[in-house]
Amino acid sequence: MFTKTILLRRKRRLRVIRIILVIGALLVFSPLLLSLFVITLEEVITGKTVGENNSIMGFFLLLAMGPVVFFAVPALILFTLMLLVLLYDAVVIALEVKKSFDEDEENADEVKAWDEGDDEGGGWFRNEHDPPL
Questions:
Q1: Among 53, 58, 78, 115, which is least packed by CB within 10 angstroms?
Q2: b/e sequence 112-129, b meaning 16+ C-beta within 10 Å
Q3: What is the pTM of this model?
């Protein structure tokens, strides 16, 4: 079941997901940031406090909450799915590490048994072709 990672170890997929999340964040916050920038610019130029009662940009700031809700839901769903996929990838990598560790232990047991030898002449021994100690 847990055999291959989905995002980790796949740089292209991870890059695409990162780009999609950045674009989603920009879509969520761009109307808000744009209206705050224009309101600040208008306050600096006129010297008056700007709000929704005396500026169209102040009213646009209130209207900017619509796209935030509209784009935030898909961005949060994608972010949650990405976290779940990363959790899955972490489990896959942990199982691979455990499997390789278990295989190393099995190989160590076989080498230990080979070193100890048995009654049939197995084990390590020196012959004339071995380099001197």
A1: 53
A2: eeeeeeeeeeeeeeeeee
A3: 0.57
Q: Residue 8 and residue 19: Cα distance in Å, rounded?
A: 16
Question: What are the Cα distances from residue 42, in Å, to 30, 64, 71, 73?
Answer: 18, 18, 27, 31
**63 close to 69: Cβ distance less than 8 angstroms:** no
Q: pLDDT for 41-77, tens place per residue?
A: 888 998 888 877 777 777 777 777 787 778 888 888 9
**pLDDT-based confidence at 34, cuts 50/70/90?**
confident
